[in-house]
Amino acid sequence: MVSAIIVAGGKGKRMGTVQSKQYINLNGKPILYYTIKNFLKNDLIDKVILVVPSNEIEYCKRKILEPNLLKIDKIVAGGKERYDSVYNGLIEAQGSEIVLIHDGVRPFASEKIIEDAIKHAKMYGAAAPGVTPKDTIKIKDEDNFSSHTPKRSKLVAVQTPQAFRFDMIYDCHKKIREKGVLITDDTMVVEYFGNKVYLYEGEYNNIKITTPEDLIIAEYLVSK
Q: NCBIfam families attached here (predicted)?
């Protein structure tokens, strides 16, 4: 069984809105609608689990899921930190062979990206899509001076969905919670315990909507 966990716990701080960013409309539909739809329509996904803040569960059901006929398998409450939310989703995904973990505000994950995630997770245990940064990246020192410039060809801007063999990611998430290590990404969880993550080709369209500028791009992509 292949499960997808969509983590939608973001707020609107960088977006400059009171409303949580996953509920902002794109062409008349909330961002989260497009995200969920991509996984529901994929035949390789057996189970879709949505994780939202506990105080938004009823709102999400009444305003996002029911009006748009989005029949997911489970909606669960998130936790204080992102890794708490992912762990709550993993509990509901028990029994899966492969699990995909995806950002709720990444509404343009293509069918190919999703299917490649599953394929590579089965082959390597852990996989994530990524793209080469378009800009030159600098490493700065503590005084804000450039210390060196890594080769752009060696750099990858990692996206989601990130896919894992369920037993690996569940075990690593349990252990990292006990250690109290701060992580910002699920690939970091498995890497912390010595597992390698296969990086496959992502897509520049697979953007994460975080700022007002991202919304402009997203409106264009939706119109296409």
A: ispD (TIGR00453), PRK00155.1-3 (NF001183)
